[in-house]
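Section 5.1 Outputs to date
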Amino acid sequence: MTAPPVPVPGARLLFSLDPGIGYLNHGGFGAVPVAVQRAQQRLREEMDSNPHRFFTTGLWERVGHARRHVSTFLGADPQGTAFVPNATAEISIVLRSLRLGAGDEVVTTSHGYGATDIAVDHFCARARAHHSVVRLPLSVSDDEIVGLVAGAVEGGRTKLLIVDQIASPTARVMPVARIAAAARAREVPVLVDAAHAPGAHGLPVDAIGADFWVGNLHKWMFAPRPTAILSVAPRWRERIEAPVISWHNADGYPANLEMGGTLDYTAWLAAPTGLFVMRTLGVDRVRSHNAALAAYGQRVVGAALGLLSPTDLPEPGSPTASMRVLPLPAGAITSTEGAAALNARLADQLRVVVACQFWQGRGLLRLSAQVYNHPDEYDRLAAGLPRVLADLN
């Protein structure tokens, strides 16, 4: 059995989470440290004390400073990045900007996020374009991923390939740099959906070589919700269209995305405080702790389900993965509604919050690990999960 890591002293006190709940779903919505909540609240108080001054005196310079701070940490060109609400919004911005036509193709993978597929279907239907999905097994090697994805795209026909950096439903860390290189050789643009990558994965954005990269900061980088970054390669920046046309539309990217009038910019301005918290704890320390704890959770819960062999447990594709999945017994989840019902049962009966989901005809349970988590929370889930599943049957 994989031993759990030593807890980070005092880390739980940095968050306002209910102490009676084992919150094992950080990957779902993140959890904002108290210091970041307070930083955002001070910004809101500043905004409401003199709204005219807040919106007209130096706001865009402050947004730009915050953007440069976080994009530099992520290894992204500050001139090619923009704040947006979340990865879902960013993906729609890119799809709209591409101006798909009849007969064009957008390719995704079966490990992709459900809302991304909905957006792709929407824009393809409007343009009479085609949405192709590359089917990848739950347990699959990097070489297999690159080969299957590269074989599914074709220059001229494929207008965009969307691939996750860390897949939401399966927690699989994808070889995105290799995929981007293979797509580039075929002259196919690549969008990397990195909703879970900022803060959790150390690969610099510019080193990936993607045309578009989208990442949430409110998950693993401790920023307030909703805060995300869109990074665009130079050749695409003039083509980025804002979803709402406002005063700074003529200034082009990134101003046309960031400057939307009387929005609440306090989440973006407080994002560097989240990064400060992470750096104070130690970036490498946070990542190694989370990866070790996620591996422990997968092992102990897997053992409770009878998954005793290492081959029974899906590998995440990276030793630094802070999320892991477990296949649930056949029949445990047979629909999206069934997944939601199991989530509710585990929360009510075991006081544990996880992410159960219905993926490719099977039930998966996704565990996250963050510095506020402790091994006994996974032990509690392991002890009670078989009984809850038996009651369902």
